[in-house]
Amino acid sequence: MREVVIVEGCRTAVGRRKGSFTNYRADELAAIVLEELVTRSSINKEAVEDVILGCVTQVNEQGGNIARTAALIAGFPIHVPGVTIDRQCGSSQQAIHFAAQAIASGDMDIVIAGGVESMTRSPMFSNMGTTKPSGKLTDKYEIVNQGISAEKIANQWGLSREQLDAFSLRSHKKALEAIRRGKFEKEIVPVEVEGEDGKLRMMVVDEGPRESTSMDALAQLKPVFQEEGRITAGNSSQMSDGASAVLLMSGDKAKALGLKPWARIIARTVVGSDPTLMLTGPIEATNRVLDKAGLTIDDMDRYEVNEAFASVPLAWLQETKADPEKLNVNGGAIALGHPLGATGTKLMTTLIHELDRINGRYGLLAICEGMGMANATVIERLSHI
């Protein structure tokens, strides 16, 4: 199997739902990161052999294979194909895995993996309409809203409302500190948007983090999914708009092109998990990917575990015995937002930059997914300078 490396990664800032990207089509937003990716890496668009994008709500402007349309908008030649995939919240992480598999097997040398989601223009579940789950499915499993799953996880792992809110406050504080220190500046592609005053400006800062967030403010929020529940809008991920992508290639191809990669992919896995609890998959996915890598959780210098709800990473921490000081150190989806199809490559982009910043060696990315699944990836930082 050939070595697979990450040569470059970039993302837009994440916009709040009905925020700065309200008037931006998802295909045009994705095209911006595709264009920027090849510009940063100085490769020819003609050399890209596939564009794999994750997108969950494939309807309206996000329908019709947005990977292909975005690549054409970005000026890729017509011989460069594109394919759009849906593995729920882990869609663009799965795009990385599919790209890596194509490269490792020798089928391809250079592939772009990424994702996009406009939760403003293509609202969550709008692709489902009034469709209900099959009775043949509900006869076998209790199919519930993800928020109910998050409540069940909080109950099973004994997580209090105060613990959930405290984790959420941490996410905001970490994100705000990262923004103040300019940690995201290198990974974000500026996008020109129209402000409320009608003037054009460059969107370069994630809109989600709130300076006003406090334990008192979070405590005032009512539960969303159960009357006496613990899951609120404050300890859940934000609906968001954004796009992201990474450029992968074989180690030999990168060397031949004179490129210095950020990282290599050490191991990857995807698992199914209980479709009722739904969001516990990262626990088993982490165990499996570390076993494949021949490493332990203590070997990881940083972990990004998507904050779909605060109960998800908190249960993950309990089960893996991971160091909380290495988890989502620059904030997570509770503060920064969760543009579904874009989140995987967004987090991977942040992870490679963070490992480089601290001279770390190994990083772990794990994301829970709808209907009970999870992807996990282990990378090893390379000196790219």
From TrEMBL:
It is an enzyme of class 2 (transferase). NCBIfam families: AcCoA-C-Actrans (TIGR01930). Pfam families: Thiolase_C (PF02803), Thiolase_N (PF00108). Its EC number is 2.3.1.16. Residues 259-381 form the Thiolase C-terminal domain. Belongs to the thiolase-like superfamily. Thiolase family. Keywords: Acyltransferase, Transferase. GO terms for molecular function: acetyl-CoA C-acyltransferase activity. Residues 4-251 form the Thiolase N-terminal domain. The keyword Transferase applies. This is Acetyl-CoA C-acyltransferase. InterPro entries: Thiolase, Thiolase-like, Thiolase_AS, Thiolase_C, Thiolase_CS, Thiolase_N. The keyword Transmembrane helix does not apply. The active site is at residues 89, 338, 368.
